[in-house]
Design goal:
The complex is a heterodimer of chains A (103) and B (463). Chain A has 103 residues and is mainly beta. Chain A has one domain: Ubiquitin-like (UB roll) (Roll). Chain A is 7% helix and 29% strand. In chain A, a hairpin with a 2-residue loop joins strand 5 and strand 6. Chain B is α/β, with parallel strands linked by helices. Chain B has three domains: 183 residues, 3-Layer(bba) Sandwich (FAD/NAD(P)-binding domain); 145 residues, FAD/NAD(P)-binding domain; 66 residues, Arc Repressor Mutant, subunit A (Orthogonal Bundle). In chain B, helix 5 crosses helix 6 and helix 10 runs antiparallel to helix 11. A five-stranded parallel beta sheet of chain B has the order 3-2-1-7-20, with helices on one face. A five-stranded parallel beta sheet of chain B has the order 9-16-10-11-12. A three-stranded antiparallel beta sheet of chain B has the order 4-5-6. In chain B, a hairpin with a 5-residue loop joins strand 4 and strand 5. The chains are: A mainly beta (103), B alpha/beta (463).
């Protein structure tokens, strides 16, 4: 195990993909979810809540609670725990309801 | 034959229903909101190399390969990523899939919607680093990643013990494991425990893993607070007195970065409640469950319920019930008939009766304290989505808003994206405590479609 929380040797985890998390490049492995990557590297705050501005993160792990929702490729409110990583994906911590999109 | 069988949920119960109904030659439509079949129990990594990492510890999907393949049987149409929308007049069912609403008129329906974790709010439970036992299981099973470096495991029930044992087996540093129940079998229950020696041995095995790694296991203990800035930095834990009172005077502080809080499961009965099936409150099975006959048919004709959504009691029960419901549904549409099908049904019913006798002993061992509401302080969040605090919710109840639908309307609790999954059990218990009635007398808010968020594109595309 390297510096992160992944189990097993990095070399045995399969094909690597590179995504960005808040603008910084992060290496991940095909088959991981965004939540898996964020927890592995210790980036555990997915968003700040709209009203009380409190930090939230991975909680139910099965797509039910929406607490791990954040901004993926510019789209707000994407659940990290059910979204597989992809090469070139842009992941950003969400503030409140996230950026407004028109169309 | 008269019509196809709709199966809602591709977890253990749903897949067992699909496999059985398909084996009898029925046409099956399987819908599930996950990308891969298997539900939470058979969750596995999406890539082969990841699947091999600690593959010996997490072999559920390998052992269940035959069951998982039921989703791709020739007479099964599987819609992954589909969300059940509702039942309408004339027996029409609808679901959202691929930004479209699809309708069908099934000859029989098996609801196998599973369960979600019981929310038990305590100060700090919304901090990043606090997560459910099922959340940890999913992280280990599907990501082969640990949740943190110094971990407290707290809660109630066998799933929480399993998550703790799995963390330890993966090399995580688990500081303590706390079980809120007394965790002792009443003498009268011991013969029932011996009905299922294999399952009993597995449970004892998990405790042995903790003991071997010198991880303290404390019954009648619970987390009382998680502290930190943007993530958990410490947890306070306290004993629970035999009368159920939390002994704050003897609280201790542990330095941890992760709190795994798993207080058992709540049956996902939203679907059966939304379509008007009769329900009953069963605390040992996790809450409100549909009333069913010996064939697992609900009070609504042709609608069967199987697995955790009809009473949280583990994967073995879900598999048996799924098979029984799939068989009963196949008999209903005329695909299964005759003496062979009837004998199959009797065999499953006998096996299920023995398993449920065993489960009553497990329920007795893990019977939680009467109320964990006192863990909350006035400013503790009860509704994570709408950020409603205990003080706000309680104020309305004390002003007379002591019925769940009204409390929902006035506070927005249960209106957020989780659709009440993380607040309804607290909301009903709060009403019960404030008005001095039993929680079984407080009906949860009526679920309304869509039961889970769906894109407006699906609705817009529907004429």
């Amino acid at each position: 195990m390297s510096g992160d929380l992944r189990l097993g040797d990095a070399g045995a985890r399969g094909r690597r993909v590179v995504l960005s998390v808040d603008g910084k490049p992060v290496t991940a492995f095909e088959g991981e979810t965004v939540a898996g990557v964020l927890l592995a590297i210790g980036h555990i705050v997915s968003r700040t809540s709209p009203t009380r501005r409190e930090a939230r993160g991975y909680y139910c792990g099965m797509g039910a609670c929406w607490d791990c929702a954040l901004v993926i490729d510019g789209r707000p409110n994407q659940r990290a725990c059910v979204t597989p990583v992809a090469d070139g994906m842009r992941v950003e911590t969400q503030s409140g309801f996230g950026p407004t999109r028109l169309a | 034959m008269s019509g196809e069988i709709l199966v809602i949920g591709a977890g253990p119960a749903g897949l067992a229903a699909v496999r059985t109904a398909a084996a009898y030659g029925a046409q099956v439509v399987l819908i599930d909101d996950n990308r891969q079949p298997g539900g939470q129990y058979y969750r596995h990594p999406a890539s082969e190399p990841l699947r091999a990492v600690h593959g010996d510890l997490f072999d559920e999907a390998t052992r269940g390969a035959d069951l998982l393949s039921a989703a791709t049987s020739p007479n099964v149409t599987h819609y992954p990523g589909a969300v059940f929308y509702g039942f309408f007049d004339d027996g029409i069912a609808a679901f959202a899939h691929d930004d479209r609403i699809t309708r069908l008129t099934p000859g029989a329906t098996v609801v196998a919607a599973g369960a979600t974790e019981r929310p038990v709010p305590f100060p700090g439970w919304t901090l990043p680093g606090v997560m459910g036992a099922g959340a940890v299981q999913n992280l280990l099973k599907s990501q082969r990643t640990l949740p943190g470096r110094r971990i407290l495991v707290t809660g109630n029930g066998p799933l929480t013990l399993l998550a703790a044992a799995n963390l330890v087996r993966c090399g995580a540093e688990v500081i303590e494991v706390l079980e809120a129940a007394a965790n002792r079998p009443p003498l009268a229950m011991i013969p029932r425990l011996l009905l299922e020696p294999g399952m009993l041995a597995r449970g004892i095995g998990y405790r042995a893993i903790l003991a071997r790694h010198r991880v303290p296991f404390r019954s009648r203990h619970v987390v009382v607070e998680a502290r930190g800035g943007a993530r958990v930095e410490a947890a306070m834990v306290a004993p629970i007195a035999p009368d159920g009172a939390i002994d704050h005077a003897r609280a201790r502080t542990l330095s941890v970065d992760t709190v795994v809080a798993g207080f058992g499961l709540v049956p996902s009965s939203e679907i059966t409640r939304s379509i008007g099936c009769e329900h009953v409150h069963d605390a040992g099975k996790g809450g409100w469950i549909p009333v069913r006959n010996a064939e697992l048919e609900t009070s609504r004709d042709g609608v069967f319920a199987a697995g955790e959504c009809a009473g949280a009691a583990g994967v073995e029960k879900a598999l048996l019930e799924g098979e029984l419901a799939g068989l009963a549904a196949a008999m209903r549409v005329g695909a299964a008939k005759g003496a062979e099908a009837a004998a199959h049904r009797r065999r499953l019913q006998r096996r299920l009766a023995r398993l449920m006798a065993f489960r009553t002993a497990i329920e007795a061992i893990y019977r939680p304290p009467a109320s964990l509401l006192p863990l909350m302080r006035d400013d503790t969040i009860v509704c994570r989505c709408e950020e409603v605090t205990l003080a706000e919710a309680r104020r309305w109840v004390r002003e007379g808003v002591n019925e769940a639908n009204s409390l929902k309307a006035i506070t927005r609790m249960a209106m957020g994206r989780c659709q009440g999954r993380n607040c309804v059990p607290t909301l009903t218990r709060l009403i019960a405590a404030e008005t001095g009635i039993d929680v079984a007398e407080v009906s949860p808010p009526r679920p309304r479609p869509p039961l889970k968020p769906i894109g407006v594109a699906a609705l817009a595309a529907d004429p």
